[in-house]
Every structure is written in structure tokens, then in C-alpha cells.
Specification:
The protein has a five-stranded antiparallel sheet with strand order 3-2-1-4-5. It has one domain. A hairpin with a 4-residue loop joins strand 2 and strand 3 (54-59). By secondary structure, the chain is an alpha+beta fold. The protein contains two helices and five strands.
Length: 114
């Protein structure tokens, strides 16, 4: 079998990129395990951590059911006296359902649910 090289790529040049001045943030996520207050009302499920002053909110739909992720939290989190323990991290996807309302903390479901 003969090898074929596309003529467009027959010449190339390796360049060095200076990364010494680049700022790489959140290489390692910051994890915190903390106590949170759980509140359910006619608007939805609110989980609030005073320690990091952060809220997660899962609204109720028109049929009065809470968003699916909120229901999952209620089913898997051990809640006592309207409080629970969660583990959060400071990195994640913007489209994640576990992101806080201020977009700074994500509930780490693997550590929280284990």
C-alpha cells in the first residue's frame, strides 16, 4: 500500500509558543463539603449554603412538580431538620443542572451522593 501525502501539507513548520505569561486558572478544582439549608415552597426547591453564601434553585413547573434534578436531590440527599451535607466544586459546565444561581459553585453529585 502506497502512502499518500496531500500536497497542501507537504511543508510545515514547528513554532514555539511562549506560555510563561499565560494564566491557567482552576487547574485543580476547589472542593468544599458544607451544610446547606433545604427549603421547599410553592416556587420550588431552594438549597442554600451560608458558608459560601450560595443558592441552588429548582423551580416548580405548572403541574406543581419540581424540576427533575431537584427531585433527584430530594431523593438522594439525606435531609434532617431541613438541612443536608453537600460537596461542591468551583468548576463545571455552564449548562450543568448542578450549577449555583451565582454560577460559581457546582454540586459534585459523585461525592455528595456517595
Amino acid at each position: 500500500m502506497d502512502s499518500y501525502i496531500n500536497p497542501k501539507f507537504s511543508e510545515y513548520e514547528i513554532i514555539d509558543i511562549d506560555i510563561s505569561n499565560m494564566n491557567f486558572t482552576n487547574d485543580e478544582p476547589d472542593y468544599k463539603t458544607l451544610k446547606a439549608i433545604v427549603n421547599i415552597n410553592n416556587k420550588g426547591l431552594k438549597i442554600y449554603s451560608e458558608e459560601i453564601d450560595t443558592t441552588w434553585f429548582y423551580k416548580r413547573h405548572k403541574n406543581d412538580l419540581i424540576e427533575e434534578e431537584g427531585i433527584l436531590l430530594l431523593q438522594k440527599l439525606p435531609i434532617s431538620n431541613n438541612e443536608c451535607i453537600i460537596t461542591v466544586k468551583n468548576t463545571g459546565y455552564d449548562s450543568s443542572p448542578w450549577i449555583s444561581t451565582n454560577n460559581e459553585w457546582w454540586i459534585d453529585t459523585e461525592l455528595t451522593f456517595s
